[in-house]
Design a protein that fits this description.
416 residues; alpha/beta; Rossmann fold; Dihydrodipicolinate Reductase, domain 2; 13 helices; 17 strands; binds nicotinamide-adenine-dinucleotide
């Protein structure tokens, strides 16, 4: 099978997780990616990831400090950008201008102007641009979407998407508490924005606002981040961080279908934490156990509560593609087991596989730049709505007609 040689750019926490995703793909019968290089402005981060790659993949990739150095990597065709969110537009445009296909972590950029720059650079050169949005690739979310599309609960009318918790501790890294480098509710909330539109289709209008609920964030006693992959940097985090970026979003949404949504992403809540993702339809409801859990959905329909394989009868269109089916144990899985990290890596393996397939065949990625930009528009629509004191349409946010919140970031990033 043809393989696409790539470089991982950004060797922090997510770069380390992506490497495990690549190792999972390479251990399968579907591998189509090789790791030619790793790149990070912080050379020790790149060296460490190269060491880990040698252990996990059997060969050591070349180590680069600057993107310009990737030109010297033999046969390189693509890159996987896992740098912090505020750097995405610069890094991606540079890679695309160098003729490299791009897979890039969410959010595509912090602002619409940043997204536009990346999308334009990819279009101009006819290169693949794929946004690594992992939550929707969880088989349980694939099944939920099929159930909704197949009419299992009738016509969807209302979606509740709630995540409340977080307390006062630094959320993964300090940069997630600064408006100019990417707030935690942009960084993590973008997943919810994607899931809501993945389940129910496009959102047209949003009303709400963002808040800083914890102005000071403190270093946690054990700050390992998701999967424990950040522990080696955590001891260098400051004792406390003064937040300039929002840690909570509260919104009312209007979907193009006519359905309504309530979205709460409160990452500074003290005490009772909760998560809820439920869609109510004309004939029933569907609740999700959360992402990368493997627990079954709960479908309530015709007076029955279904939490087992019987729900598959209501989703005739549900079928996972071959790699997903191989990794998760079947084409129509309705639950699965395993530790968080292994589940995480299986999903990241799918992203790599799809990206390389697009490079090799010219197929269109599932999460294109345009899809990624729409989720950036949804998150920013709530920030913009809060400043404007009115509901805003995602179209006016995408068109740049409403940008009071984003302008300061754009100025900082050199985009205006
Ligand atoms: N999908 C998910 O579940 C998930 C989870 C965590 C993070 N992420 C995303 O992954 C990305 C990275 O997040 P992280 O937590 O790993 O950040 P991080 O701060 O741990 O790592 C970022 C790395 O990028 C490097 N870097 C920054 N600018 C660079 C440049 N111009 N060239 C080369 N290297 C550069 C930094 O030196 C650092 O090593 C973000 O977009 C974040 O939103 C996604």
């Amino acid at each position: 099978m043809d393989v696409v040689p790539i470089a991982i750019i950004g060797c922090g926490g997510m770069g380390r997780r992506h490497l495990r995703g690549l190792a999972t793909l390479q251990a399968s019968d579907f591998n189509n990616v090789s790791l030619a290089a790793v790149c990070d402005l912080q050379r020790p981060n790149a060296e460490d990831l190269a060491d880990e790659a040698e252990q996990l993949l059997g060969t050591r990739p070349q180590v680069c400090e600057r993107i310009a150095d990737l030109a010297a990597v033999d046969g390189l065709r693509g890159c996987d950008i896992t740098t912090d969110a505020g750097s995405h537009h610069r890094v991606a445009v540079q890679c695309l201008e160098a003729g490299l296909h791009v897979q890039i972590e969410k959010p595509l950029s912090l602002t619409i102007r940043g997204c536009d720059a990346i999308i334009a650079a990819a279009r101009e050169r006819g290169l693949v641009l794929s946004v690594a949005e992992n939550y929707r690739r969880d088989p349980i979310n694939r099944l939920a979407r099929a159930l909704l599309a197949d009419g299992a609960i009738g016509t969807p009318q209302f979606m509740l998407e709630v995540g409340i918790g977080g307390g006062k501790q630094i959320a993964i890294t300090p940069w997630r508490h600064h408006k100019l480098t990417g707030t935690i509710v942009t960084d993590a909330g973008i997943h919810n924005a994607d899931i809501m539109m993945y389940y129910l289709g496009d959102v047209v209008t949003a009303y709400g606002e963002g808040r800083i609920t914890q102005p000071i964030r403190y270093r946690a006693a054990e700050a390992g981040g998701p999967g424990g992959f950040y522990a080696k940097w955590a001891e260098d985090f400051p004792e406390q961080v003064e937040a300039t970026g929002e840690d909570a979003l509260f919104g009312s949404l209007h979907f193009a279908s006519g359905a309504l949504g309530t979205w709460i992403a409160h990452r500074g809540a003290i005490g009772h934490s909760q998560g809820q993702r439920t869609v109510y339809g004309s004939n029933g409801s569907l609740s999700s156990p959360g992402d990368r859990q493997g627990a079954p959905l709960t479908v309530y329909v015709d007076g029955r509560t279904i939490t087992d394989g019987a729900m598959l009868d209501l989703a005739p269109s549900y079928r996972l593609p071959p790699l997903e089916a191989a990794l998760f144990g079947g084409e129509r899985v309705w639950r699965y087991d395993g530790p968080f990290n292994e589940i995480d890596w299986k999903i990241l393996a799918q992203e790599y596989h799809e990206f390389a397939t697009c490079v090799l065949t010219g197929a269109r990625p599932e999460v294109t730049g345009e899809v990624g930009r729409r989720t950036v528009a949804l998150v920013n629509a709530l920030f913009e709505s809060g400043l404007a004191g009115r509901a805003v349409t995602l179209d006016e946010v995408e068109a740049g007609a409403v940008d009071a919140y984003q302008r300061e970031i754009d100025e900082h990033l050199g985009l205006v």
